[in-house]
């Protein structure tokens, strides 16, 4: 199939939910992908922070092949060995005591909302269902996660939202404290707001939010769907702040591209769920779990990949700051946490994305005016140099 045919068929057969770029990607290896015309691209989108190990990481491919030959799917009415194995790895390497598996980020958030409400209902009574979340947050597209999301424009046309969500400015612990009422069961935040343009809160934000939640007796839910799986240089972003949440949501990088999501929680909180409270036909499916196990094993093996992420993240930010200084007429700020980096512009960044695409670099535009870079954690210095060179050229041609 060529790109012309792909565009025609998309218009004909697919619902119009994505503003797709005119490329048909057919093959990937490491940090590179190739289009149907054989053009090579350096991939700094990485399936939106999902391909943490790059495309077709050999150990993930082998794990999938082996599992596909053995058992692809069985119901959660039976015990599933790869599910138990991945749960143990996650529990052994996080604050959590228990895991629940689903298929996407939004589903993990839905489950986390249900868990928090069930926990508070048992503890305090049924009126305790409120959740404080942040303005400009992104938690997903299903109705509960969309109601939690602090962006009115995404709910337009789909109202009414679920009741009980209060949105307060991100990075301001006092605003959270003021918004908590006796009806609040949880605070739900991202350690770094990825979708709204790589917004990094003040250094003590998570610590303060944790203290407030503990003082007020409400649960802290961290949405690490984008920041987890090593993206910020630690396995989970909460580790930077020395606190732990009560519930955490994961997805994206957990399966290296296989659809997967997870809710992790402490024993105390997880105990609120009993059989029949929550479930998913595909959640914890052997095939997706095998990708999750291979991904976690690679990330944990000697800590080399996390170390690489920290070093390359620092390098990427340095180079991005140079670009920001050179193009100070266009660039507002360069910021980053590990290999989640953003360059805020004083204008729409769509033309820069298109120009980079023409030059062989995939980047993303978040919140309309922030260029977001999310390369695999295995990215090398020379690849960052190439990407920065292309970005620099694209910005130079803007005026
Ligand atoms: C922080 C965060 N939460 C939730 C989601 C939703 O995940 P999914 O698209 O897998 O439903 C995303 C997706 O970008 C995200 O970044």
How does this structure look, described?
There is one protein chain. The model has no long low-confidence stretch (mean pLDDT 97). Strands 4-10-9-8-7-5-6 form a seven-stranded mixed beta sheet, with helices on both faces. It is 39% helix and 17% strand. It is α/β, with parallel strands linked by helices and 399 residues long. The chain has helices at residues 3-13, 46-49, 58-70, 81-92, 105-124, 143-148, 152-155, 173-179, 205-216, 267-270, 286-300, 304-326, 350-358, 381-396, and strands spanning 25-29, 32-35, 40-43, 98-102, 130-134, 165-168, 184-189, 219-223, 247-250, 261-265, 331-337, 340-345, 361-362, 364-366, 370-373. It has 14 helices and 15 strands. The protein is globular. Helix 3 runs antiparallel to helix 11 (286-300) and helix 12 packs parallel to helix 14 (381-396).
**What is the average per-residue confidence, as pLDDT, rounded to a whole number?**
97
Strand content: 15-25%
Number of strands: 15
The main sheet comes to: 7 strands, mixed
- Count helical runs: 14
Question: Bound small molecules, which ones?
Answer: pyridoxal-5'-phosphate
Which overall shape is indicated by the principal axes computed on the Cα atoms?
Answer: globular
């Amino acid at each position: 199939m060529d790109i012309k045919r792909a565009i025609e068929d998309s218009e004909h057969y697919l619902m119009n939910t994505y503003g797709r770029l005119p490329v048909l990607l057919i093959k990937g290896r490491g940090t590179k992908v190739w289009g149907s015309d054989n053009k090579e691209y350096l991939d700094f989108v990485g399936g939106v922070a999902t391909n943490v190990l790059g495309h077709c990481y050999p150990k993930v491919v082998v794990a999938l092949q082996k599992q596909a030959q053995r058992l692809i799917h069985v119901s959660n009415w039976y015990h599933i060995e790869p599910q138990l194995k991945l749960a143990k790895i996650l529990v052994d390497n996080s604050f959590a005591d228990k895991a629940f598996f689903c298929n996407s980020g939004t589903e993990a958030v839905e489950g986390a909302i249900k868990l928090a409400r069930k926990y508070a209902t048992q503890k305090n009574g049924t009126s305790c269902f409120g959740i404080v979340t942040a303005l400009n947050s992104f938690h997903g597209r299903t109705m509960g996660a969309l109601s939690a999301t602090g962006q009115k424009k995404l709910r337009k046309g789909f109202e009414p939202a679920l009741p009980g969500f209060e949105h307060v400015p991100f990075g301001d612990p006092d605003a959270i404290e003021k918004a908590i009422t006796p009806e609040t069961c949880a605070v739900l935040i991202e350690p770094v707001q990825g979708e709204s343009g790589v917004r990094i809160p003040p250094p003590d934000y998570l610590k303060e939010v944790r203290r407030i939640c503990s003082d007020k007796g409400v649960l802290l839910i961290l949405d690490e769907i984008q920041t987890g799986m090593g993206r910020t240089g630690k396995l989970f972003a909460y580790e930077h702040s020395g606190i732990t949440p009560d519930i955490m949501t994961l997805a994206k990088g957990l399966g290296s591209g296989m659809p997967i999501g997870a809710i992790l929680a402490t024993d105390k909180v997880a105990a609120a769920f009993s059989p029949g409270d929550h479930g998913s036909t595909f959640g914890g499916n052997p095939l997706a779990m095998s990708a999750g196990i291979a991904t976690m094993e690679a990330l944990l093996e000697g800590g080399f990949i996390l170390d690489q992420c920290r070093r390359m993240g620092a390098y990427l930010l340095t180079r991005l700051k140079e670009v920001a200084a050179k193009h100070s007429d266009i660039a507002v700020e360069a910021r980053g946490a590990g290999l989640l980096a953003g360059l805020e512009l004083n204008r729409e960044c769509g033309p820069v994305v298109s120009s980079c695409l023409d030059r062989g670099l995939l980047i993303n535009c978040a919140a309309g005016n922030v260029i977001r870079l999310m390369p695999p954690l295995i990215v090398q210095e020379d690849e960052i140099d190439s990407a920065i060179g292309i970005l620099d050229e694209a910005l130079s041609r803007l005026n």
